[in-house]
Specification:
Shape: elongated
Number of strands: 5
Number of helices: 39
Helix content: 55-70%
Distance between the termini: 109 Å
Strand content: under 5%
CATH class of the largest domain: Alpha Beta
CATH superfamily of the largest domain: P-loop containing nucleotide triphosphate hydrolases
Length: 738
């Protein structure tokens, strides 16, 4: 008659694991000394993932019979699964004392040593295994893992390849061979091995490996599909979530990337790289607050991570928190004094504060530390312009000639060279540099599928005009805040908004807050605040007077956090706020609205010359022209429909008669005249725009009709612009210009 234990073994061989376990439990209930039943039940529990329970059961088997090598080997596996690598090593050594020269015991010993962080001893164990059994594919695979861990990737590759040759159906060997080939930049060779591993052992790891190879081969949609398969098979695995987020980020699909990287940080909250990647995609999507929070998390986990500290500093700098930014750079340089990006950012901080000598010194230090640092050369050249020494230009030109320089760095240097050439009166050379620089930037955006989409912008402008018309203004009349504190300066970039802000901010009752995104963010937050899934435009009909006042109060609270309490007026000079007067007038009907305009040819030239990494439409003549047409159309709409005065300031008039224009804009803000407004260039306030250098100088006329010097070389740019190009010729239907 068959014994109960034999029945359990028979059930196991038939694939009826639960029934086999139940029989073992009955045996042990009747006889706690049945070591084979305890051992088998422990192995079954280990296969179910209950490592701690498995270890307890096999320990009991060992206590009953301490002379069975297989008990110790399976106990070692239970300990490994429980994170008890040292105990696993001890078990393997006991098994080898009981049964010397056992390839299986030596192989398991090697694995336990690897777990214990002892790769050299593991390598010795795996080599002994292969001395006894040269055709043992798992040992070749494990030796490859140990060699890779000890920094010998070429030797590791040999053993992964041998494992795959000996056992083509051994999925771990094929998977590791694929990984090794990919790490060796040989994705074409890796692909069939990772495909085989995913077929043989379909799980989150094998599909993640396959997706990694497809990504390297630029088979993006196939890679996305395999990452999704990996996530379906292992929803609690952080790696496929993180890698999918990184792929989407690199493809310009940064909004999609955020959710996957957020999940990765939730699944692996101690992984610094995931938090750093998440911060980067938040930053790319104008999520400054979320990006800063993520970088702070990085630094909580890794305080000496200088790149993250420097990135946080830049985010703080962009947020107007210069003292905190400076502290970040100080701390970064305290950890790594030769970290060039921190020196560069320190230089930018000095430049924004008008400390040009200190800025130059910081840029030169960044170049000394990293001679191939294109952005540092670019900042130095743009700072000095006509005073840029020949030796520095030679160093810049040498870097430009380097075949190792990427398109982004080349574009930075060409923009800077154009500014130097412009200051030296060499318009043809500047124009040629600008053509190449803008083409490089446009090419980068096209490759990332992140280029400017004029049709989308035109549709957006159309929705603005349809949503904010006479009916809107009539419905919201009197609903907003009565505060006069906000002052909004807007217009196209390079139309004089920084100059007007600097004039106003020189008044003791005015705080210049720079370019704030409060208007856009407030409007775009409508769905979230109202708890709706509609677009912001669709939400407008659901916004009542009380809701508008809450938005206005929130805006004022944010200004309060930015500006000193003594400031009666706070200036927001975000140029793109010309898109939002309909929203802002409803919030603040008593605010001051100033529209800066200028000859479109000068604006177009200045945009074409400026390294606006965040304004993608400035790199294409067609996009510049289209943007200008949409701007003209929208400003005509506001002038015809807005129930408040939009004060117009023409740049050319400001340059020709500074005092008259300054007096009028001060009066428009409801303030008494102060002569300090004529000394705007002496202000020590921080300026964070492309006009940072110009507004540190007295008013000058050289930028008026500057386009004429470029007419022979940039005729295509000027010819594409909407007529009339001269601001004096634009038909005005609104209030008179100030």
């Amino acid at each position: 008659m068959q014994t109960p234990f034999a029945t359990a073994v028979q059930l196991l061989r038939a694939g009826r694991r639960q029934e086999a376990a139940a029989v073992c439990e009955k045996i042990l209930a009747a006889d706690r000394g049945h070591s084979d039943a305890a051992h088998l039940l422990g192995v079954l529990r280990l296969q179910d993932g209950a490592a701690a329970e498995a270890a307890t059961l096999i320990e009991h088997a060992v206590a009953v019979r301490s002379d069975v090598p297989d008990y110790y080997l399976d106990l070692a596996e239970a300990y490994r699964a429980s994170g008890r690598a040292g105990d696993a090593v001890d078990c393997c050594q006991t098994a080898l004392r009981l049964r010397a020269a056992d390839p299986a015991a030596l192989n398991t010993l090697g694995l336990a040593l690897l777990d214990a962080g002892r790769p050299e001893e593991a390598i010795e164990a795996f080599r002994k295994t292969l001395d006894l059994r040269p055709d043992f594919a798992p040992a070749h695979n494990n030796l490859g893992v140990a060699l890779r861990a000890s920094g010998r990737p070429d030797s590791a590759l040999e053993h992964f390849r041998r494992a795959a040759e000996l056992a083509p159906d051994f999925a771990p060997g094929r998977a590791n061979l694929g990984r090794a080939l990919l790490n060796n930049n040989r994705p074409e060779e890796a692909l069939p091995h990772n495909e085989a591993a995913a077929r043989q052992q379909p799980n989150a790891d094998t599909f993640t490996d396959l997706a990694n190879v497809l990504w390297a081969l630029k088979k993006v949609e196939e890679a996305v599909a395999k990452y999704l398969d990996a996530i379906r098979l292992g929803p609690d695995r952080a790696v496929p979530h993180a890698n999918l987020g990184r792929l989407l980020r690199d493809e310009g699909r940064t909004w999609e990337a955020i959710s996957w990287l957020k999940t990765a940080t939730r699944l692996a909250p101690e992984n610094v790289d995931y938090w750093d990647d998440l911060a980067g995609v938040y930053w790319a999507n104008d999520g400054a607050a979320d990006a800063m929070a993520a970088w702070e998390r990085v630094l909580a986990l890794a305080p000496r991570r200088v790149a993250a500290r420097t990135s946080l500093g830049w985010a703080l700098q962009e947020d107007g928190r210069q003292a905190e930014a400076a502290e970040c750079y100080r701390l970064a340089l305290g950890v790594q004094p030769d970290y060039a990006p921190a020196h560069l950012n320190t230089g930018v901080l000095h430049e924004e504060k008008g400390e040009m000598t200190e800025a130059e010194a910081a840029y030169r230090e960044a170049i000394r530390l990293q001679p191939s640092f294109a952005l540092a050369h670019s900042r130095l050249a743009t700072l000095l312009r006509g005073r840029f020494p020949a030796a520095d230009q030679a160093a810049l030109d040498e870097l430009l000639a380097s075949p190792n320089l990427g398109d982004e760095g080349r574009a930075r240097l060409l923009f800077a060279t154009a500014h130097v050439a412009d200051a030296q009166g060499d318009a043809p050379r500047a124009a040629e540099c600008l053509r190449t620089a803008n083409a490089l930037c446009q090419g980068q955006e096209d490759r990332k599928k992140q280029g400017y989409k004029p049709a989308e912008h035109d549709r957006y402008v159309g929705r603005i005009m349809a949503s904010f018309g006479p009916e809107w203004f009539a419905r919201t009349a009197g609903a907003g805040s009565s505060s006069r504190r906000p002052v909004f300066i807007f217009g196209l970039p390079r139309s004089g908004t920084t100059l007007v802000e600097q004039i106003l901010a020189s008044h003791p009752a005015v705080h210049g807050a720079g370019e704030l995104s409060l208007a856009r963010r407030g409007f775009e937050s409508l769905p979230t605040v109202l708890g709706r899934t509609d677009s912001p435009f669709q939400c407008l009909s659901h916004l009542d007077s009380a809701g508008l006042r809450r938005f206005a109060e929130k805006h004022l609270e944010q200004l309060q956090a930015i500006a000193p309490a003594a400031a009666d007026r706070v200036v927001d000079k975000m140029p793109d706020n010309y898109l939002y007067p309909g929203w802002l007038v409803a919030l603040f009907p008593n605010a001051t609205f100033i529209h800066c305009h200028r000859d479109l040819r000068d604006i177009a030239l200045s945009c074409w010359m400026t390294d606006f990494r965040s304004l993608k439409w400035t790199n294409s003549i067609e996009s510049i022209a289209g943007r200008f047409r949409a701007y003209r159309r929208l400003m005509g709409h506001w002038e015809a429909t807005c129930p408040v005065t939009i004060h117009r300031v023409r740049y050319e008039d400001t340059v020709a008669d500074l005092e008259s224009v300054a007096r009028r804009i001060i009066a428009a803000c409801g303030l008494d005249w102060n002569p300090a407004c004529l000394e705007f260039h002496r202000s020590k306030r921080t300026v964070r725009t492309a006009s940072v250098t110009q507004v540190r100088q007295p008013i000058f006329t050289t930028s008026v009709a500057r386009w004429k010097r470029y007419e022979p070389d940039l005729a295509a740019l000027f010819d594409a612009l909407p007529e009339p190009v001269d601001a004096r010729e634009v038909h005005q239907t609104g209030p008179a210009s100030v």
